[in-house]
Amino acid sequence: MSADPKVFLMGEEVGEYQGAYKISKGLLEKYGPERVLDTPITEAGFSGIGVGAAYYGLRPVVEFMTFNFSMQAIDHIINSAAKSNYMSAGQISVPIVFRGPNGAAAGVGAQHSQCYASWYASCPGLKVLSPYSSEDARGLLKAAIRDPDPVVFLENELLYGESFPVSAEVLDSSFCLPIGKAKIEREGKDVTITAFSKMVGYALKAADTLAKEGISAEVINLRSIRPLDRSTINASVRKTNRLVTVEEGFPQHGVGAEICTSVIEESFGYLDAPVERIAGADVPMPYAANLERMAVPQVEDIIRAAKRACHRSVPVAAAA
Amino acid sequence: MRRFLNHFKSKTIHRSSWNSCTNESHPHHPIATLLSLRSFSSTTTAQNPIQDSNHNQAIDFPGGTIKFIPEMRFLSESLEERIPCYRVLDDNGQLISGNNFVQVSEEVAVKMYTDMVTLRTMDTIFYEAQRQGRISFYVTTIGEEAINVASAAALSMDDVVFPQYREAGVLLWRGFTLQEFANQCFSNKYDNGKGRQMPAHYGSNKHNYLTVASTIATQISHAVGAAYSLKMDKKDACSVTFFGDGGSSEGDFHAALNFAAVTEAPVIFICRNNGWAISTPISDQFRSDGVVVKGQAYGVRSIRVDGNDALAIYSAVQAARQMAITEGRPILIEALTYRVGHHSTSDDSTKYRPASEIEWWRMARDPVARFRKWMEGNGWWNGMAESELINGLRQQLLHTIQVAESVEKPPLADLFTDVYDVPPSNLRDQEQWLKETLEKHPQDYPENISV
């Protein structure tokens, strides 16, 4: 925001209240009410206004209190933001960022817990990013704001409270990450695990346990869901010959399905085992804690899937 | 919530409570008060805080003082009298006495009239082209030429227009050529939209006219966003959006009016209330007194105008523009008119409305004829000028269609560009594969695709 006066933030409670999760802390004080806008409670309203402002020269950052509420505004995200550059033959670019927490938090039920990664990632015209660590959040958000195309930026509520070590390079004001590049968080040789957002942490924990049992897992933090870094994924699978995809969203037409297709198209001959897909349960999120736990992937699920892929058979039934 | 919070930002703190105007003290920390919602520290009327002795008569509430009354009085669902409609010319094109309007010069008036006739002639010929199967779709503006052209004439070129799809006249006024219209409808390689939009879904950055969106009413909130941008840049311009009576039922209309009021955005909302949303009459669309009354509920200044009176539209839009820019406020204009044509080439409107109704509006209330009578009364137009104009236009338009039809279609590369600013690798790969396939199997693909 200090680098470009055209950048402004709008959404519910982003100003005086400093964001429902305090993500915009201090911004109102620093940049004033013209650039940090508290809006009426109308997702379709402020998304539409944001798109219009982007059509005409500004660079809005639109916050959804949760991406579940972006459903009220999806027409502006898909029909307006994603398609206008194409429909106008390049006359209208839409440099806008839609951001906010996505996916499951804890104990907030079906209408606060859905992952929208595969929804937005299926739409040409959009870029979809999902940070895991502080480094990701800083580098990717800056990239998103500077990008000339509309970006959907999927954060995670539980990660807001988590701390990560950061290097001096990351803290430097010039730090930025490229869009469309995955990060290999941990190198390995026996099985590739792809994940994004909170599931990267789970995948790393699973890799720790697997290492103790002699399985070397390579963990890929996707960072960018669209464009998808197919070459990094395929290069890894060609090395490990096994793949486990992890996501919190629903399994059908999910991010894992797309990754699986990419690997089958490009690296089928390298696969030594069927691809394992770990995803959320195919039900709306239940509220009760015991059921909720059953509905989202756990570290143990990833460990079991990796072992199955490595022919250390664990029957699916044993999962329960 | 922004309004409430703004009150807390005020330096002058007055104490007044929710229930009555006692001097009970409350914490003024914004968050604490936001959550408790018990007191409003400062309102626009709080310069004269109400004394304790009056606390049974009124409440000091954000937005002003509200009187208490003993009667239980529900607001009526309608006003006793419908909102009147501003007009300058009567049905015979005569100035109504006592009117106030913005005088139009002969030069501007002639261009307005010429553009209205051009628009109607273009509509007639392009519509016929669709009936002949030469283009897939078309939508006419017949009966609404005055709203199109007179509003465009009252605006400046710097004002940004967010159209629906029945405002080609605005683009015509701004200099989009007949050949450009034809190229778009025939989606040839000179179409400035690269053949990506349905016919009559024009757009041109050069003319500050945003590409038409088929989704109804989304352009209304986009206009507010652009107005906010103009305001931040302190430009001497406003944004203007058009929509129909049907569009006013979309959530976007309501969100946009509310946001425009709250953000004090310089935007003009022009509703073409033409009586019909495809086959839905306005009696099935809403039960309010049209659209104009909705402005007040959102705190938006509003006017109802005779949409078939070019001078009234011109005057109202010019006044609205002035207020929007100098006062930093949105304005709603409801133009009463009638869709004389079918909704589009996809329907036959005589199946759902009486032909006599269409005929009456076409003959007795024609906006073009009314303006012409006024022009003739001023000695600015005559029968000879009329026949010259019509004949020339028909020939010119038939020629543009022939040219547009003979030009080749957009190249294959146009399928892939502009999805993103820079095409990602998967898109580049797809384009490459397609080119290779075309080269390998030319006999299986149509000849009219240029790589």
Automatic annotation (TrEMBL), chain A:
Reactions catalysed, as given in the entry: N(6)-[(R)-lipoyl]-L-lysyl-[protein] + pyruvate + H(+) = N(6)-[(R)-S(8)-acetyldihydrolipoyl]-L-lysyl-[protein] + CO2
Cofactor needs? thiamine diphosphate
Keywords from the named record: Metal-binding, Mitochondrion, Oxidoreductase, Potassium, Pyruvate, Thiamine pyrophosphate, Transit peptide
What's one GO BP annotation on this UniProt entry? Answer: pyruvate decarboxylation to acetyl-CoA
EC number of the protein: 1.2.4.1
- Chain ranges of the Transketolase-like pyrimidine-binding domain: 1-162
The record, for SUPFAM superfamilies, names: Thiamin diphosphate-binding fold (THDP-binding) (SSF52518), TK C-terminal domain-like (SSF52922)
Q: Where in the cell is it found?
A: Mitochondrion matrix
Q: Write down any Gene Ontology CC term.
A: mitochondrial matrix
Matching Pfam families: Transket_pyr, Transketolase_C
Recall the GO molecular function terms of this protein's record: metal ion binding; pyruvate dehydrogenase (acetyl-transferring) activity
Determine if Cell wall biogenesis/degradation is one of this entry's keywords: no
- On the tree of life, the source organism's domain of life is Eukaryota
Query: Sorted alphabetically, which InterPro entries does this protein's record hold?
Result: PDHB_mito-type (IPR027110), THDP-binding (IPR029061), Transketo_C/PFOR_II (IPR009014), Transketolase-like_Pyr-bd (IPR005475), Transketolase_C (IPR033248)
Purpose of the protein:
The pyruvate dehydrogenase complex catalyzes the overall conversion of pyruvate to acetyl-CoA and CO(2). It contains multiple copies of three enzymatic components: pyruvate dehydrogenase (E1), dihydrolipoamide acetyltransferase (E2) and lipoamide dehydrogenase (E3). The pyruvate dehydrogenase complex catalyzes the overall conversion of pyruvate to acetyl-CoA and CO2.
Assembly and binders: Tetramer of 2 alpha and 2 beta subunits.
Q: What is this protein called?
A: Pyruvate dehydrogenase E1 component subunit beta
Automatic annotation (TrEMBL), chain B:
**Keywords annotated in UniProt:** Metal-binding, Mitochondrion, Oxidoreductase, Potassium, Transit peptide
GO MF annotation, one: metal ion binding
EC assignment: 1.2.4.4
Protein localization: Mitochondrion matrix
Q: Which residues form the Dehydrogenase E1 component domain?
A: 115-410
Q: Which InterPro entries match?
A: Alpha-ketoacid_DH_E1_comp (IPR050771), DH_E1 (IPR001017), THDP-binding (IPR029061)
Cofactor names:
thiamine diphosphate
Q: What class of enzyme is it?
A: oxidoreductase
Q: Name one GO cellular component term.
A: mitochondrial matrix
Q: Give the residues annotated as coiled coil.
A: none
- PANTHER family with a match to the protein in the record: 2-OXOISOVALERATE DEHYDROGENASE SUBUNIT ALPHA 2, MITOCHONDRIAL, 2-OXOISOVALERATE DEHYDROGENASE SUBUNIT ALPHA, MITOCHONDRIAL
What's this protein's family per the entry?
Answer: Belongs to the BCKDHA family.
Subunit details: Heterotetramer of alpha and beta chains.
Q: From the Swiss-Prot or TrEMBL record, give the protein name.
A: 3-methyl-2-oxobutanoate dehydrogenase (2-methylpropanoyl-transferring)
Question: What organism, scientifically named, is this protein from?
Answer: Clitoria ternatea (Butterfly pea)
